[in-house]
Each structure stands twice: as C-alpha cells, then as structure tokens.
Amino acid sequence: MPTRTAVVASAAGLHARPATLFVEAARGQPVRVTIARADGPAVDAASILAVLALGASQGDAVTLSAEGEGADEALAALAAILETDADTPA
C-alpha cells in the first residue's frame, strides 16, 4: 500500500478552511485515502469530522495511505494541499 508523509503547513492546522479543502480533494480521488498522525489511527480522508478530530496542527507530520490504481497520484495531490498554507491569502 503506497504511503506518503506530509507536514501540515497551514497556520490553523487541519481546521476549518484547510480541512475543507483537503477533504473535498480527497473525495475527488479515484481511490479511498486515509490520513493518520504518528500517534493515532488512520481515518477516512474524505470525512470532515474524522479529519477535524485528528487535531493536526501546523508542523505536524501526517501519513497518507491509499491502494489501487491512481494511488500514487492521489497521495501526491493531497500531500501538496497539506503542504500549502491555505490560511495565507493568495
């Protein structure tokens, strides 16, 4: 199963806007993706409640996992979202 580690860049962590952007992108992937903090279980990346419950803060490393055709591309796209500060205006 492919995995990818990403560091949360948003100043607010995975809360409100950054979590919503991430979850919407996860829902658009062709494979089911999970996300986990180092000290916790993996949760469904397409569930806003599960992602918010992670309590991931800025600078926290999270692990994304997926399996199936397109998994590597899905993980790369989702890691890029996590590693972008969604709290900073464009």
Layout of secondary structure:
Layout: E1 3-7, H1 16-27, E2 33-37, E3 43-44, H2 48-54, E4 61-66, H3 71-82
Antiparallel strand pairs: 1-4, 2-3, 2-4
Low-confidence stretches: none
What radius of gyration results from the CA coordinates? 12 Å
- pLDDT average, as an integer? 95
The total strand number stands at 4
User: Which word captures the global form?
Assistant: globular
Account of the 3D structure:
- The N and C termini lie far apart (35 Å).
- A four-stranded antiparallel β-sheet has the order 1-4-2-3, with helices on one face.
- With 90 residues, the chain is an alpha+beta fold.
- The chain is globular and about 35 Å long.
- It has three helices and four strands; from the N terminus they run βαββαβα.
- A hairpin with a 5-residue loop joins strand 2 (33-37) and strand 3 (43-44).
